[in-house]
Amino acid sequence: MIDWLKTSFSFMRELALAYCMEYDVYFDESGDLGWKLNHPYRKGGSSQFFTIAYLILPTDKNKHINRFFKKFHKDRNGKEKEIKGADFRNYRAKTMARTIMGLLEWNNDMIIGAVTVKKANVPTRLVNSNNDNVLYDHMVQLGLCSKLINLEKVNIIPDQRSVPSGSQNSCSDLIKRKLWIELGSKVEITYRPEESQHNERLMFIDWIANFVWRNYENKSMEAYQILQPRLGEDLLYF
């Protein structure tokens, strides 16, 4: 059933992509790029998995995410403090995943996806390189480039606080090189990191990143399973 739904949504997304000129692309992460895998997470150790999730939507659809958060803040008595995905307990994450799916079901041209790496299987040479941006940049281009190749214009907006320092420029360059040179795309690209506390679309994708990541890290799968029919996903070193 899930495979059939994914095929149907994929077709509708491709159809929608053909009729929009400008898209915004948001991505954020969950977990970390530390390599202390023999100790408990956050007790001297690193996460076992690392996830980057992305949201692609027509620029004029940003208003729907804004309305989503207006209702979210209203339900919290008007409190507009930034809420991270990690702040949700499992039962609350499950509820929010259902709400997110409700939004996505009414907007077939909104695309969500994620790339997750199992860090224990990452090649030693990469781990010892002290260049975490290499893995990070590869995950971003793996998730995004095949979705952007046929678009006319995209504005790529990562969370500025999450992007590794080495990726501030390299990630943008890798995406452009992959699309323009290797894939022959004519897409116009702008790349401008912003802070999630000032951009609710980044908060939105932070939640999704966490719901995917906790499925692998903690075996907390309820929220992930709800999102799965609309989730494009790549797994590395599993």
Write the layout of secondary structure elements.
Elements lengths: L1 H16 L4 E10 L17 E10 L3 H14 L14 H16 L5 E8 L5 H4 L4 H17 L4 E6 L8 H16 L5 E4 L8 H18 L4 H6 L3 E6 L2
Give an overview in words.
With 238 residues, the chain is of the alpha/beta class. The chain has one domain (2-236): Nucleotidyltransferase, domain 5. The chain is built from eight helices and six strands, in the order αββααβααβαβααβ. Strands 5-4-1-2-3-6 form a six-stranded mixed beta sheet. Strand 4, helix 6 (167-182) and strand 5 form a beta-alpha-beta unit. Helix 5 (132-148) runs parallel beside helix 6. The longest helix has 18 residues, at 200-217. The two termini are 24 Å apart.
The CATH class is identified as Alpha Beta
The CATH superfamily name is Ribonuclease H-like superfamily/Ribonuclease H
Question: CATH topology, what is it called?
Answer: Nucleotidyltransferase, domain 5
* Number of individual domains: 1
Give the percentage of residues in beta strands.
15-25%
Summarize this structure briefly.
The chain has 238 residues and is of the alpha/beta class. The chain has one domain (2-236): Nucleotidyltransferase, domain 5, CATH 3.30.420.10. The protein has eight helices and six strands.
Key traits:
238 residues, alpha/beta, Nucleotidyltransferase, domain 5, globular
